[in-house]
Amino acid sequence: MHVTPPPPHVTRPVVEPVWWQVFGPGFAALIGLFMLTVVYRFDGVSALQIALGLSGQSVLMIVLVPYLVAAALTVPVGLLLGARFPTAVTIPATGFLFLGVLLAAFTPGSGLLLIGRALSGLGTGAAAGAAAALIQKLRRRRGLVAGVAAALGVLALLLAPVIGQLISEALGFRVIHLAAIPFLLVALIVSTVLGLVKLTAAKRQVLPHGVPYPPAGFTGGEHESTLELGR
To answer: Cα Rg for the chain, rounded, in angstroms?
Structure first.
């Protein structure tokens, strides 16, 4: 009696992140950082503060603090899950940013504005944490990608008040938030496409060339087979 040897055990290889995966969460995080400071201006009272009749302390407690606190809560989530599930983290993060921007754009008062800023902070923190986790796991070009990401983040924080002031003086502060929506849609599309590309590449590596498939009629376990030769 000849027992057919079992097929080799096939395991899914560990797929290391690649530098272009940072585009998805990185782009979303840049938009979030831009929205963090876009409501301010360097040389006076912002248009948002004037339009809603907010004091300086109210702006701090309604506009800035909820954003930073919410971001601090979701950064650990992005750091823990971002390298392994970048798309699953980035898409909800972009969704939170989208909802937060919409609420801030159409807010009639401080209450809805606070909720919108908190939602935007949740999305920004998760996206930034996912981008940082991916960069940390990179084996190649880690320093270059980290430097570019940090420079773009600082640039977004610094340019946002200038751009926001120019737009708000001409069209109002609500337009600033509405203008972010197309960019968020692009970030959502980019994250989805990159996730599909990475998933396809991973599936191609599951069964390498040269690994035999189980023979026809093989139903046995690790040490047995129902096939008997010679019958």
So the answer is: 25
pLDDT at 10: 47
Name the pLDDT band for 110 (thresholds 50, 70, 90).
Answer: confident
Q: Where are the alpha helices (DSSP H) in 56-109?
A: 56-59, 65-81, 86-105
CATH entry, 19-202, from 3.30.565.40, 3.10.300.10, 1.20.1250.20, 1.10.10.10: 1.20.1250.20
Instruction: Provide the pLDDT for residue 122.
Output: 96
3-state DSSP assignment of residue 3: strand
Cα–Cα distance between 155 and 142 in angstroms, integer?
20
Tell me which residue of 12, 25, 142 sits closest to 82, measured CA to CA: 25
**Helix 86-105, helix 173-204: angle, nearest 10:** 170
Helices (H), the chain: 23-37, 47-52, 56-59, 65-81, 86-105, 110-137, 142-171, 173-204
What are the residue boundaries of the structural domains of the chain, listed by start? 19-202
pTM: 0.78
